[in-house]
Here is the input.
Amino acid sequence: MTLAPKPGVLDIVPYVGGRAHVPGVAEAIKLSSNESALGPSPKAVAAYEAAARGIAIYPEGSAQLLREEIAKIYGLDASRIVCGNGSDELLSMLAHAYLRPGDEVLFTEHAFLVYRVATLANSAVPVVVPEKDLRADVDAMLKAVTPKTRLVYLANPNNPTGSYLPHDEVRRLHAGLSPDTLLVIDAAYAEYVRRNDYEAGIEMVSSFPNVVMTRTFSKIYALAGLRVGWAYCPAAVADVLNRVRGPFNVSVPAQITAVAALKDRAHFDASVAHNDKWRAWLIENIRKLGLRADDSVANFVLIHFADTRTAQAADAFLSGRGVILRGVANYALPHCLRLTVGTEDANRRVVTALAEFVKTKS
Ligand SMILES: *Cc1c(COP(=O)(O)O)cnc(C)c1O
Here is the structure.
């Protein structure tokens, strides 16, 4: 007998984050992981530094002060919030708590890779549903539902496509699921969305016992390196997560810093405004170069190239000029690159470099 992990584990392709460095380029700009252009609130950074004095002791395990602040800002019931070491941890924890071997988990063709990892890690079966025009297709998802469907992960908005489902479509998806299937709405980019027909999922969590919404401090709050996320859950699901989560899964500095970040609404508003302005600018200027850039409601833009080779050549060309985008071949989009909205300087550098690249091709 040899030591073997659970079935599925060795089918996992380890997740690789966006590159941060280019060999030979001293100061590359990282636009590969959707981190917020303006960085964290200076008040959050100050709180983090001050938190150093508290690291000798264990955190308060339920992240109570953080849950209360989240509840205040978003108008929620703090007892139904569960915090995690990034929302990735919560997405995995839900799989860990609810999946039995052989259960089916639905997600869409170009969905966030963590869903597949969490599914396979629990010996469950990924059911990958085709998208329509790079957007989740509710009809196709409902067609893929079987009695074995236990979890449905929906990134709304989705990464890396930047598309979203309007709330009536999300509700239609939920209406077609059995009460013993959990719909997990991953709303990591919710704060960036400015559409009247979008809803992050709070209303649905309040109305249904089988809907969970996850959120993160990694994107608009720019605390990706700290690892904090949260889930808003029906009471019974919160109870389950509180049984399976590590007793001290969110560190003292993470709790304190996230609270300070939440309180700085001016910085939050500035981050949203910056993104609105520069996302539109990027899309407009990339399209002027004759490239396809998709509409996006998040803080990134998907750029299409003629084929895989051209996308790889563009990636290498841009890297050489000190701007790092994200190749998305592992999202079944090998002819595309994903660009995170950056600072004004970074955005201008990207467009200039892309223009040079396009010229070398003509
Ligand atoms: C970035 C991202 C997250 C956030 O992950 P964290 O673990 O909270 O940093 C979740 N879902 C999607 C789709 C993302 O792109």
